[in-house]
Amino acid sequence: MVVFLSPHLDDVALSCGGLVHRLTTSGQRVAIVTICTADRPAEWPLSPTAHQLHQRWGLGEQPYVQRRAEDVQACRLLGAQHVHLGLLDAIYRLDDRGEPLYKDDFIGGSVHPHDRQVFLPRVRASLAEWLGLAEQIFCPLAIGGHVDHVLVREAVESSCDSSKLRYYEDYPYAERGVAPPAGFVPEVVPLSDEDIQARLRAIACYASQWPVLFGTLDDAMARVSAYSRRVGGERYWRRG
């Protein structure tokens, strides 16, 4: 089994949809394991940033119900098994006093010490079964510095054999440029037109997300296609 680890319900489709399609159509068993998929407890406070995201997504106060459904549709289209681990997104997590850990600094900011103490062990425990089953694992490189991507990468690196670990370029953060990580070697996976189209169709399944990320679906398709042409397909990294 090949396991792709997705911090959120769209990261693998955005970054790796072409390779997932290529693998599944060749008969490989693929699981897309998404970490942050839980509904926020209704009584928990929302930070201003979380409230703003809810408004932009347009899915009400419990948006993850629809977001999970979008992911199921995208995974089915790519031919992969969907797995939802049921942990909370950074925008919802609270400290011991019931205060949001992150207000507007969950992208590019520092990981909160409470997350390292509490959330990181939960990620490790939730991933243990899937890391054990995997012959190959793809995890985020954590370009852009989203704290959930950073924590997933740390959890994986501390839990599995690096020889079966590959890193994907977190898209659309990767559009800003990817500095070659020290000690890493790039591996470009060429994609057929069919693979690229499957990636685009999977991205289109996330109807709550692509308007926020791209504006219009045409813009999304154009930008993803342009990035794929620039790197020659999809680019992955391994430790040299």
Describe the protein.
It contains eight helices and seven strands; from the N terminus they run E-H-E-H-H-E-H-E-H-E-E-H-H-H-E. The longest helix is centred in the middle third of the chain and has 21 residues, at about 115-135. The protein is α/β, with parallel strands linked by helices. Helix 1 (about 10-25) packs across helix 6 (about 195-205), helix 3 (about 65-80) packs antiparallel against helix 6 and helix 6 (about 195-205) packs antiparallel against helix 8 (about 215-230). The mean pLDDT is about 95. Strand 1 (about 1-5), helix 1 (about 10-25) and strand 2 form a beta-alpha-beta unit.
Seen as an oligomer or otherwise, the chain set is: single chain
For the largest beta sheet, what order do the strands appear in spatially? 3-2-1-4-5-7-6
Structural class: alpha/beta
The domain count comes to 1
How many beta-strand segments?
A: 7
Radius of gyration over C-alpha positions, nearest whole angstrom: 17 Å
CATH architecture tag: 3-Layer(aba) Sandwich
Low-confidence segments, ≥5 residues, pLDDT <50?
A: none
What would you give as the CATH superfamily? LmbE-like
The helix fraction, in percent, is 40-55%
Strand content: 15-25%
Order of helix and strand elements from N to C terminus:
EHEHHEHEHEEHHHE
Largest sheet: 7 strands, mixed
Terminus-to-terminus distance? 23 Å
